[in-house]
Amino acid sequence: RVAKEEACKRLGLGAATGYVMFFGYVRDYKGLDTLLSAWALLKAEGKTAGRKLLVVGEVYGDDAKYREQIDRLGIGADVVMHTEFVPDGEVAEWFSVADVVALPYKSATQSGVTQVAYAFDVPMVVTDVGGLREMVPHDVVGRLCESGARSVADAIAACYEGGNLERYREG
């Protein structure tokens, strides 16, 4: 793990900002569109102040549909897009800046991203699909939620309530 301030400096991010991160190859089944809609809900409810959404990973296909969705939802100032392959040497920096890793998958058998989040003690928001429910015990290391923007938004918001982030890191 790298100190957040140092990682933010290397990545050109603000150290005072909280970050929710989508990490890994961007494919339709991984639900980035759901996460963007969830972020728009959180923003409308005033729950994104001081926070940004990081989208970190290579896009399979064209990222135009995601950029159009970001524009349509009016969340462009809240979203940092880094849609290039992340070399192994930079993974620690990205996970060191993240408060939460969001895996809003629509379907899955498993995800290697959960293992990386565990390695860096980063809480997770994970949809209850495939083998993900076995990987992330609800309210221990993060939040397990249903697929869908409302459920993902509520799970992200819950991570920031009380001492949940610290408790999840310890979990």
Describe the structure.
There is one protein chain. With 171 residues, this protein is of the alpha/beta class. Helix content is 42%, strand content 16%. The protein has eight helices and six strands, in the order αβαβαβαβαβαβαα. The chain has helices at residues 4-11, 32-44, 64-73, 88-97, 112-119, 132-135, 149-159, 164-170; strands at residues 18-23, 51-56, 79-82, 100-103, 124-127, 142-145. A six-stranded parallel β-sheet has the order 3-2-1-4-5-6, sandwiched between helices. It is globular and about 40 Å long.
Question: What would you say about this model in short?
Answer:
This protein is of the alpha/beta class and 171 residues long. The protein has helices spanning 4-11, 32-44, 64-73, 88-97, 112-119, 132-135, 149-159, 164-170; strands spanning 18-23, 51-56, 79-82, 100-103, 124-127, 142-145. Helix content is 42%, strand content 16%.
Q: Which strand order spans the largest sheet, edge to edge or round the barrel?
A: 3-2-1-4-5-6
Q: What structural category characterises the helix and strand content?
A: alpha/beta
- What's the Cα radius of gyration? 14 Å
Range of strand content: 15-25%
Query: Mind summarizing the main beta sheet?
Result: 6 strands, parallel
Cα shape: globular
The tally of helices reads 8
Task: Please provide the ordered H/E string of secondary-structure elements.
Answer: HEHEHEHEHEHEHH
Low-confidence sequence ranges: none
Q: How many β-strand stretches?
A: 6
Distance between the termini: 17 Å
Percentage of residues in helical conformation: 40-55%
Give average pLDDT, whole number: 93
